[in-house]
Amino acid sequence: MDVDIISEEENPMLHRTDIRFETTHEEATPSRLSVRDSLAAKLDKASEEVVVHELNTKFGMRKTVGYAKVYDAAEDALDVEQQHMLERNKIGDEADADAEEA
Predict the structure, then answer these.
(1) Which residues contact 19 (CB under 8 A, 6 or more apart)?
(2) Strands of 50-57's sheet, edge to edge?
(3) Which residues pair with 38 in a beta bridge?
(4) d(CA 61, CA 48)
(5) How far is the C-alpha of 98 from the C-alpha of 57, rounded, in Å?
(6) Which stretch is the leader sequence (predicted)?
């Protein structure tokens, strides 16, 4: 999957960068997690620091346009993001699983 960054906007108050991106894919629309991992690899960040908010694919097209927030640290994402977005992006699940086992 090829990921191209369309625009970046710094948001220092929330310790993040807002990114609009476009991805080209061969098969069906890629999953949120695969896009997150590809974007994190391109930006040289950890997967837990990237939160994909939206993916839009037009019918029949092989391009998806999306919006993501890239945080300076995973803790910043946990502090700012809404719980349902963290669940969709599988962020913080390891900490929750450890707490349930204890």
Answers:
(1) 5, 7, 8, 9, 39, 43, 67, 68, 69, 70
(2) 2-11, 16-24, 63-71, 50-57
(3) none
(4) 29
(5) 36
(6) none
Q: What is the pLDDT of residues 20-66, one digit of tens each?
A: 999 998 888 889 999 999 999 999 999 999 999 999 998 888 999 99
Half-sphere exposure of 25 (CA within 13 A, CB side): 19
Does residue 42 contact residue 35 with C-beta atoms inside 8 Å? no
Distance CA 67, CA 38 (A): 14
User: Is 50 in contact with 9 (CB distance < 8 Å)?
Assistant: no
pTM for the model: 0.82
Q: DSSP string covering the chain, please?
A: -EEEEEEEEEEGGGTEEEEEEEEE-SSSPPPHHHHHHHHHHHHT--GGGEEEEEEEE-TT-SEEEEEEEEESSHHHHHHHS-HHHHHHTT-SHHHHHHHHH-
